[in-house]
Fold each of these.
Amino acid sequence: MRRIAEMVVVITGASAGIGRQLAIDLHARGARLALAARRAQKLDALNHELGGGHLVVEADVSRPADCARLISAARERYGRIDTLIANAGYGFPATVCESTPQQVEQIFRTNVFGSIDCARAAVGVMRGQSARDGLRGQIMMVSSGAARRGLPFFGVYSATKAAQLSLTEAMRIELEGEAIAVTSVHPIGTETDFFTVAEALGVTKIQSNMRRSWRQPVGRVTRAMVRAIARPRREVWTSQTTRVGLAVNALFPSIGDAVMRKQKREIDALNASGN
Ligand SMILES: NC(=O)c1ccc[n+]([C@@H]2O[C@H](COP(=O)([O-])OP(=O)(O)OC[C@H]3O[C@@H](n4cnc5c(N)ncnc54)[C@H](OP(=O)(O)O)[C@@H]3O)[C@@H](O)[C@H]2O)c1
């Protein structure tokens, strides 16, 4: 069991949603935080709300230099990094063939390259530090349930989340001999700014009242993440029903296709109705 009090945690995408709530939860348990995102004002406001004692770093994870600067700043401030939460990310609604090369490149730069660049730099720091409560460090990647099944209108996004899962699976074995744990997190639809941000980036509507009602509260996701920081595990799933459904999909993709066909029909109807 790792003590969260005094633990140094770097969180990308801390200005909103899952990252912001995780910062609040970890602060309540006495962690020392490095909060990163592009909107520095939101980070400053969060830090102020938490008493002002945390490090704020304005960083765009799609830029490798920003990832390196974030990790160096955290090490300089705290002397070590116990957990990196590679959480910064977004999606946009478009069919695969309607996604432009620029959209595809930018989302991979943020969700995938940004995760790798932050993880590479953080592992460099972790390798040089002594173990604390049995571990030198932990890399936690916020992937998605979509890592295991491509979603219609979110095919490119799903591909970035599958890439994050592949990376964590490989890193977990590559780093276990060095006492660095690697965890992937797989939320399902969660009540954050994610869907509003996504809709603003595309022309397809994705939010109906019914679809909103399926979302999980953000605290449910962050509580599970806090537990997996204290006691690192391989994967964090916040919906066991989804997890079982994805196992069925892996064995019988035709069943997964039937569920996804229904989702596509709902989104088509939402866009046809103009609501
Ligand atoms: N909400 C869901 O239903 C859901 C489900 C599964 C997985 N997830 C994953 O959970 C993670 C967090 O999403 P969320 O739901 O909390 O959405 P959110 O409320 O929109 O928050 C996204 C965060 O990522 C940051 N971000 C985006 N692009 C960035 C960039 N280039 N550089 C640095 N920070 C960046 C945003 O900060 P700035 O805009 O200030 O940079 C913001 O803090 C994402 O990786 C998402 O894929 C979400």
Amino acid sequence: MARRRKVRRKIRVGIIGTGGIARAAHIPGYQKVPDCEVFACCDIVKQKAREVAKQFGIPHVFTDYRQMLEMDELDAVSVCTPNYLHKDPTIAALRAGKHVLVEKPLALNAKEGQAMVDAAKEAGKQLMCGLNNRFRAEAQALKRFIDNGLLGEAYYARAQALRRRGIPGWGVFIEKDKQGGGPLIDLGVHILDLTLYLMGYPQPIAASGQTYTKFGHRDDVLGLMGQWDPKKFTVEDFGCGFIRFDNGATVYLETSFAANLEADVFNTVILGDRGGCQLSPVKMFTEQNQTLLEMTPTSLRPVKTHEVEMSLFVEAIRNDTPVPIPAEEALQVTKILDAIYQSAEKGREVKIR
Ligand SMILES: NC(=O)c1ccc[n+]([C@@H]2O[C@H](COP(=O)([O-])OP(=O)(O)OC[C@H]3O[C@@H](n4cnc5c(N)ncnc54)[C@H](O)[C@@H]3O)[C@@H](O)[C@H]2O)c1
């Protein structure tokens, strides 16, 4: 008897916002997933949407995402608009019966993020946040060791996402009302999520922090990521925070768009009572037989993290299994960042509920 081939349901995706991340990551990422089609795209700038549709062979083009969401054929959408436009398209898509992959950060603040999480629950649809750095080969290697007991009890981490001269010279990354903040929300969100993921996502209870603007207002600072308009600069260019968790663990977070440092850093160092680890360069530290050991993974295969992100999102939809980066975890990060910003304004520690 001939073996029947399993028929895989085709997943059709729509894209809201056809800017940098949609073109570089989401659209090509989905197009690599078997039996997945980018069926429609939308941008308020008609020309942009048309160009992208032509470049990637996307059959349907819109300038109003609400119209795109009326398409019954769409199973899911990617929300790739600037941060201040994550909430409304996400909620509209969920209410239209689509699963959503929203870019990081989840939202401008925790109030918006909570509304998005609630909308997903009400609609019975999945909401994932694009915190792709979790899929780095080194992060996944550390996760495997940590899940098998490398750290013992993880009680402290130092998370850093630091640029020496990396104020973005494009987009709206320097405008507080559209972005919600500077490096804390743009870069800190990645390294904080990755750190908490490795620590098993303990529950945050309080945070304190400080923000500084020492470079962004000036017109005599080197722009290695393009030249920005100092008059438009309304975010911090350095932000740090100290976070407490309900299990007694603490995390120190440092982020910058510009700082007088030797070099850029994207790293987390995690301390446990049985072992420790760091992301960049990836290493693990233990003691055995009264001997200090250092372990360095070798031959890790390089990973295209965005491709993994799109592929796992589509597979979760297809198989009706939980998405790998649930919005609830991204909401914890957003709550922490809110508390750090509030603490910087108030000059004291802020509780997280
Ligand atoms: N995960 C990552 O590595 C990563 C990298 C870069 C950006 N991002 C995130 O992706 C998001 C977008 O960033 P980007 O760099 O692509 O910005 P971008 O400015 O290049 O693109 C945003 C696009 O959204 C469009 N847009 C604005 N309002 C719209 C609306 N109402 N309807 C439809 N389209 C609309 C704009 O015209 C623009 O084309 C941000 O939230 C950012 O944080 C993530």
